[in-house]
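Why does residue order matter? Because the sequence determines the fold. Keep that principle in mind as you read this record.
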Amino acid sequence: MTAKAVSEVIITNEVGLHARPSVKFTKLAKTFPCTVEFATSEDGPWIDAKSIVKVMGAKAPKGTRLLLRAQGEQSTTAVAALIALVERGFDEGGGHGEPQ
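Structure:
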């Protein structure tokens, strides 16, 4: 049986999934051997998280709910890592302190 993982997260950084966050999101997704996709609705379209062009094309603003799913080896780890990245505001900073 193939491993699967599904979860969701809300984009909280001010500018949403723009250029820099898209690159970070895609680079992280590519570190995992599984397929990784996201959507803003259960009905899709589901977007390949490893394609920078497709990720940037999603144009997801602050407040967007991202649904994430992965299938294959390390799928649970991949989804957890991507959710953590989004929850950290894509490590963009913007606060007065450094990320912990």
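Residues 95-100 have pLDDT under 50 and may be disordered.
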